[in-house]
Amino acid sequence: MTTAKQVDGFIAKFDPAQQRLIRSMRAAMRKRLPTAVELVYDNYNFFVIGYGPNERASDAVFSIAANSKNVGLAFLQGATLPDPKRRLLGAGKRNRFMRFTSASELRDPDVQALVRAAVAQAMTPFPRTGRVRTVVKSVSAKQRPRRESART
Question: What are the residue boundaries of the structural domains of the chain, listed by start?
Fold first, then answer.
């Protein structure tokens, strides 16, 4: 099975609205970060697509994280980002996140400023040339339901 088909299968586990949101956010992030490496994790709690300059998870800058209820964008070093409008959620030492109901929210000027700041402060810069490459890092045998209807 190709990596693309494998990722499509992971996304297909979600309700149709969640699938559309995950796919549109993924397309927007791939467009914004055209040389990134996508790190895909289909884990117990979340389906995650990380974006970094290489295959090292510790160098990732962002991740799209989805469960049966929410899709969010994590800023993996978000605690150090300037966030004057307090758009970022969370109180961890490093990570901050935003929940999305539409990929169009990624075009919000405040969100774009946070994305630019996160890329600028990345410890390892993104390559200047190349194209997005997808790597499936892990798949958990046991997972929480990906569809809201399956939780009843």
Answer: 3-140
